[in-house]
Amino acid sequence: MAIVFQLIILAIGFVLFHRMGWSYLQALAQYQPLPPGKRGRSGQKVYVEGMYGSGTILRSPIAQEVCLRWRVIVTEKQGKNSISRLDHGSYGVENFVILRRGDRRSFLVEQQPDTVLKQIHDLGGHHGPKHQYQQNLLWQSNHPQMVEFLQNNGISPDNWLGVRRSLTVTELFWRTNDPIFVFGELTEQEGQWCLKAHLLSDQSVEKLRRVPSLFLLIGVVILFFAGLGMFNPWR
To answer: Is 109:118 a contact under the CB 8 Å cutoff?
Structure first.
């Protein structure tokens, strides 16, 4: 029984070390910083820091904020668990450029989201301008646009018993001159530099590395002590 328990601990340590630590850090390391003024080459994976520039003017679906890009995340509280019900954004309709100080070039952005990078980003929570709406058994939201948005996306505010669900709706939006951090592939089309963005982040690469680095460290500690317990010749 003790061996089984130690094997489970080793498995947990390995997942933290490799899956959520090392592999996430390696995924971020594929993107090389592109300093202002440096040309780069087509097809290169780059990391670019800048600001939202001009683009197609959109409105966020709930608060109707004028913006260049928006994202709505819906989660439901069930007991101690928080379950994701919707992650919807302005992908496919947004069109904007990125500006950088000290760089005459602008970058046209085309989103091609990467699942692993999104997982890394969401570990650190959601930052930037946002509105948050909540409802639960004791509190009913008085925001009709939120209820309409939920219904339009197939989410009922009430469960099958007619009781209000514990929902949290987070609406994020980004405007001109807001900071942006892009991980993507550099291309050039008819003289215009483009970024096929695998991740549009509101956090720098240094901040995104923090949680995977912590998982890596915890995994190493667990593997060390679990391995010491299993293979200790002086037991």
So the answer is: no
Take residue 196 and report the two structure tokens written for it: 């096929």
Closest by CA position to 120, among listed 26, 34, 17: 26
CA torsion sign for 39, 44, 50, 51 is positive
Structure letter (DSSP) for residue 158: B
- pTM, two decimal places: 0.81
Token digits of residue 110 = 């085309």
How far apart are alpha carbons 42 and 45 in whole angstroms?
9
10-49 per-position pLDDT tens digit: 889 889 999 899 999 999 999 999 888 787 888 899 999 9
Residue 80 banded pLDDT, cuts 50, 70, 90? confident
Q: Cβ contacts of residue 217 below 8 Å, gap of 6+?
A: 21
Across 150-191, the runs of DSSP E, i.e. the strands, are 167-174, 179-189
Could you give the CA distance from residue 134 to residue 136 in angstroms, rounded to a whole number? 7
What's the DSSP call for residue 136? -
Instruction: Write out the two tokens for 197.
Output: 């963005």
What residues are paired with 186 via a beta bridge? 195
> Is the pLDDT at 168 greater than 70, yes or no?
yes
What residue type is assigned to position 146 of the chain?
Answer: M
